[in-house]
UniProtKB/TrEMBL annotation:
Pathway info: Metabolic intermediate biosynthesis; (R)-mevalonate biosynthesis; (R)-mevalonate from acetyl-CoA: step 3/3
Compositionally skewed regions (Basic residues) per UniProt: 542-552
Protein's UniProt keywords contain Transmembrane: yes
Any single GO BP term: ergosterol biosynthetic process
Protein name stated in the entry: 3-hydroxy-3-methylglutaryl coenzyme A reductase
Record's subcellular location: Endoplasmic reticulum membrane
Residue span of region Disordered: 523-556, 574-599
Family listed: Belongs to the HMG-CoA reductase family.
Taxonomic lineage: Eukaryota, Fungi, Dikarya, Ascomycota, Saccharomycotina
EC category: oxidoreductase
Cellular component aspect of the GO annotation: endoplasmic reticulum membrane; peroxisomal membrane
């Protein structure tokens, strides 16, 4: 039973998720066929006979009585009669002057037509174009107007509805209206629910589309196979109740756990995730619920045998639920899979572009982008422009579909094609009796044709005419047997290409780690990855003899990429992992590390191998010989060896010899189990290992109503504990409130001019509106994210210093800005009239970066944040072991007055650099930028109610959540802990701003805790002095006049023990 209700749906979901394009296209094609069948049965059959608009009258010889022929069979009786045709004409336009028509029989009785023309043939030789006295053109329009046909259908429905309302009870009408309101509310609820999950539009639209297809298939199954006819009235009344009662909860219940699973393991294959979720969480509950409801409908159909309409609808409803459940596990699973896979690729490409723009090498950017996709931010979200385009596309498709049904959208032509039989016959006879004065001996048969319309030709009608002509021509061309087959082949090729590309991208976005795990799990006892062996066949210019000598020595010493055993199960031949990957290197063999193979060929031979580019074929001892001899630079090891881990090993051996440091031959400086692919070309050069730093966590700290666990990388004891105490006190008061006051990174180049006058002219131009506008345009053209805010200038002699302040998205952005500044200065020299300008330095220390400076304190740099919190007075005493008055006094004396006496620039705090630098290291920021980022003013004051208000103002926090050290997996993981890894999907810069707020809030907690410890220590000392037994000339009193008992003394002693770090 479990297999039936969980494994089968899971297998279906896996197949459909693996081949989403196949499933979606197949479903749409079958739904289109079913739709056409239902359309013909429910729409065409109930449509008024607007195609048979011809009305026939017969007048016998020597008589004036006209007989209306109600059927075409009556025409056979009068086949020998003379036959004439009456063409009703109508003129439409924006003028009162209509063209004159020869032999026009005017109709003065009604305004439906302007007159009639008698012709001998049904075609009627009516002119295509007419002109009025002013020369305005009127053109004869085609009567094949399908839009008018559907207008008639809608009109007939309205008439039927009116009759139904008249005959219905008021309570029934209210119930049906409530059902329709509830149905639309259900649609809104679906979009809202999917929005909470993370999809703004497409998953909700896909849910509705899936249910619509289920309805079409179920209706076709009911009518065509079961031969059960459900009337249109039953559908219009019953479907709103069905939608509002059943709703789309099963779609939401299916989607939510899938998205959650994608978030928790974004590197796992999408099809596997969907299948696992269906098997473990959604299949049995959904099937159970749908079966119960379907059974209820079946039982209801058995109990209402005397009500055929209700019985048939209950059967249809049960089938709809069954088909909809099937489509949930197939069609909707395909939509969800396709959406996830497309956005994975999209975000990977976008992330790679951002990293490359920030100066990260292409290889590292690609490696980071492949495994740094956060599904919660990427798979389902869309920005508003994309969402608007999608909605426009959907409605455009519907509009095109409707356009194909008719020939005119620019004017109301429905009345033009009203069946002529609806008009009174005596009015027709009165209109022609004066023209037809004599009836032939064999009688006269009069056929009244559909109304012909002459419309005034305007620019809009002409445009519409040619658009319709194009569509008509295309339709005619497509119907050609040869062309239709060709288009069908093209469509098949297009679908095949899309399927191929999707499969390729799906394999591309699979994590390399998952492939390695697959390889290892397929052969548990394999030693793949434990030995370092040769991976590739070399193509060198050296002799075959050299190759043979090389091969044997290399087998035990040169790392080989993970290659699948062709004999292993479930592994395809040729499936390998990139030879440069070091993410899963478990260990190096002892022989490799110690270089036990002492067989070294002559240096001359090794030099020839180096020149041939085959150093990777040498053992480590030989590579070491080349390095020591100065033939192979240390920085070139990665490139020459083609394996970053092996390059680290050889470099350690080289430095151990150069510096006489055998410590590098041990594991005391770790180097194993590290992803050097992300380091090389991005974070460090000449790598010999890495230094682990303990990482603690402070928090949770409530920041703007949301809790954050803050990673702290430090070797200073008590720092995390002290911050935790501050977090506890702040949370008790309701958390931290933050405000972003500015956001802009700076770069300040120095340029020089021939003389002071030219430098002054450049300054005036740059400060002007024209200069700012032109420089912004030049700067903004270099990046999708960097946007120049303004330029500030300063002049010193004939040198001009220009401070560019720009936004940089979620990157810290120094490389991004430097590129924009360089281009702006080039444009300034070549295009803006300052060709005598000489760029002295791209960074003229007017930025100013990694140095204490007043301009950063005053103007700000990076993110400017103010964080504040209110601490209840009892929390100050119970948690912080101090009191409000002591804290306020200490803050003024230490952080304000003391810092001012020391001439501090931005240093009006206790130890802001402590927490900031620890978080910088944990999250991959540039630790050197703590110089200006630690600019902080801590303020405390006592509120009227006795509580403490503390705030920190930090005008120059320089952070980013992409690029730099954030590409390293441990640092990226800490950003993921905060929920701000990588670029924000819809609001560039939001993640970096949130990180700055987290840092300022953590600094606030640390400042509060340290100052409390300092204040507690001061109070203890004052208290001890006050309680000396020996008489004192002047009795010391506790600060702020606080009277202390023995309990207070113990509390303060405890507070003074908390790591005082000043």
């Amino acid at each position: 039973m479990t297999y039936l209700f969980s494994d089968i749906p899971a297998s279906l979901a896996r197949v459909c998720a693996n081949k989403p394009i196949h499933i979606i296209i197949s479903t749409v094609l079958f739904a289109a066929v079913a739709y056409l069948g239902i359309f013909e049965q429910y729409i065409t059959n109930d449509l008024p006979a607007t195609d048979s608009q011809e009305v026939n009258f017969y007048c016998p010889p020597s008589s004036s009585n006209w007989e209306l022929l109600k059927s075409t069979s009556d025409l056979d009786k009068y086949s020998n009669a003379e036959h004439v045709y009456l063409n009703p004409l109508k003129f439409k336009g924006f003028t009162d002057s209509f063209p004159e028509f020869p032999n026009l029989i005017e109709d003065l009785e009604t305004s439906d037509v302007d007159g009639y023309v008698l012709t001998d043939t049904a075609v009627g030789n009516l002119p295509e174009v007419l002109k009025n006295e002013q020369g305005q053109v009127f053109k004869l329009r085609s009567s094949n107007n399908k839009l008018g046909k559907y207008y008639e259908y809608c009109k007939s429905i309205i008439v039927k509805l009116q009759h139904a309302i008249v005959g219905a009870e008021p309570l029934d009408i209210v119930m049906v209206l409530c059902a329709y309101v509830a149905m639309w509310f259900t649609f809104i609820q679906l979009f809202y629910g999917m929005r909470k999950i993370g999809s703004n539009f497409w998953l909700a639209f896909g849910s509705i589309l899936s249910s619509c297809f289920a309805f079409i298939f179920a209706l076709a199954l009911t009518t065509e196979i079961l031969k059960i006819k459900v009337s249109l009235v039953s559908l219009t009344e019953g479907l709103p109740f069905l939608v509002s009662t059943i709703g789309f909860k099963h779609k939401l219940a299916f989607t939510a756990p899938v998205v959650k699973a994608l978030n928790s393991d974004p590197h796992k294959d999408v099809a596997d995730i969907i299948s696992d979720v269906v098997r473990s969480r959604t299949a049995i509950p959904l099937i159970r619920d749908q079966l119960i409801i379907s059974a209820s409908f079946v039982i209801c159909s058995l109990l209402v045998q005397n009500l055929p309409g209700l019985k048939n609808f209950c059967i249809l409803a049960s089938i709809i639920l069954a088909v909809d459940l099937f489509f949930t596990f197939t069609f909707f699973a395909s939509i969800l899979s396709l959406k996830a896979q497309i956005f994975k690729v999209h975000r990977e490409i976008e992330l790679k572009e951002i990293l490359e723009e920030d100066g990260i090498s292409s290889n590292v950017a690609n490696n980071v982008a492949e495994v740094s996709i956060d599904i919660s931010q990427t798979v389902l979200k869309n920005n508003r422009r994309i969402l608007g385009f999608k909605i426009f596309t959907v409605f455009g498709f519907l509009g095109l579909h409707l356009f194909a049904l008719g020939t005119s959208w620019l004017y109301d032509d429905s009345a033009d094609f009203e069946p002529i039989a609806n008009r009174d016959s005596h009015l027709l006879i009165a209109a022609v009796k004066n023209t037809i004065t004599q009836i032939p001996n064999n009688g006269l048969l009069l056929t009244v044709l559909p109304i012909k319309v002459y419309s005034q030709a305007t620019a809009l009608t002409e445009l519409e005419y040619y658009v319709v002509l194009i569509f008509t021509t295309l339709t005619t061309a497509i119907s050609d047997p040869l062309i239709s087959k060709f288009l069908f082949m093209i469509a098949g090729i297009s679908v095949s290409i899309n399927i191929y590309l999707l499969n390729a991208t799906r394999f591309h976005i699979r994590s390399p780690v998952s492939i390695i795990n697959q390889l290892n799990s397929s052969k548990p006892n394999s030693s793949v990855g434990n030995d370092i062996v040769n991976a590739s066949t070399t193509t060198s210019k050296s002799s075959k003899k050299t190759k043979k000598k090389t091969k044997k020595r290399a087998e035990n010493n040169i790392q080989k990429p993970l290659v699948a055993d062709v004999n292993a199960d479930n592994i395809k031949e040729g499936q390998i992992v990139d030879e440069n990957s070091t993410a899963d290197d478990d260990s190096l063999s002892e022989n490799t590390l110690s270089s036990s193979d002492d067989t070294v060929r002559p240096l001359e031979e090794l030099t020839e191998i180096l020149k041939a580019g085959n150093v990777k074929d040498c053992n480590n001892s030989e590579v070491l010989e080349l390095v020591i001899a100065g033939k192979l630079p240390l920085y070139a090891l990665e490139k020459q060896l083609g394996n970053k881990m092996r390059a680290v090993v050889v470099r350690r051996q080289s430095i151990a010899k150069f510096a006489n440091a055998p410590v590098l031959l041990s594991d005391r400086l770790p180097f194993k189990d590290y992803d050097y692919d992300r380091v090389f070309g991005a974070c460090c050069e000449n790598v010999i290992g890495y230094v682990p730093i303990p990482v603690g966590v402070a928090g949770p700290l409530v920041i703007d109503g949301k809790p954050f666990h803050i990673p702290v990388a430090t070797t200073e004891g008590c720092l995390v504990a002290s911050a935790m105490r501050g977090c506890k006190a702040i949370n008790a008061g309701g958390g931290v409130e933050t405000v972003l006051t500015a956001d802009g990174m700076t770069r300040g180049p120095c340029v020089q001019f021939p003389n002071l006058k030219r430098a002054g002219k450049a300054k005036v131009w740059l400060d002007s509106e024209e200069g700012q506008k032109k420089m912004k345009a030049a700067f903004n053209s270099t990046s999708r994210f960097a946007r120049l805010q303004h330029i500030k200038t300063a002049i010193a002699g004939d040198s001009l210093y220009i401070r560019f302040k720009t936004t940089t998205g979620d990157a810290m952005g120094m490389n991004m800005i430097s590129k924009g500044v360089e281009h702006s200065l080039k444009c300034m020299a070549e295009e803006f009239g300052f060709d005598d300008m000489n760029v002295i330095s791209l960074s003229g220390n007017y930025c100013i970066d990694k140095k204490a400076a007043a301009i950063n304190w005053i103007e700000g740099r990076g993110k400017s944040i103010v964080a504040s919190a209110d601490i209840p007075s009892d929390i100050v005493e119970k948690v912080l072991k101090s009191n409000v008055d002591a804290l306020v006094e200490l803050n003024v004396s230490k952080n304000l007055v003391g810092s001012a006496l020391a001439g501090a620039i931005g240093g009006f705090n206790a130890h802001a650099a402590n927490l900031l630098t620890a978080i910088y290291i944990a999250t991959g920021q540039d630790p050197a930028q703590n110089v200006e980022s630690s600019n902080c003013m801590t303020l405390m004051k006592k509120l009227p109610n006795g509580d403490l208000r503390i705030s920190v103002s930090m005008p120059s926090i320089e952070v980013g959540t992409i690029g730099g050290g954030t590409v390293l997996e441990p640092q990226g993981a800490m950003l993921e802990l905060l929920g701000i890894r990588g670029p924000h999907p819809t609001e560039p810069g939001a993640n970096a701003r949130q990180l700055a707020k987290v840092i300022a809030s953590a600094v606030l907690a640390s400042e509060l805790s340290l100052c409390s410890a300092l204040a507690a220590g001061h109070l203890v000392q004052s208290h001890m002095q006050h309680n000396r037994k020996a008489p004192a000339p002047l009795e010391a009193v506790p600060s702020a006049g606080v009277s202390l008992n023995s309990a207070d003394v113990e509390r303060l002693k405890e507070g003074s023990k908390i790591c005082i770090r000043s």
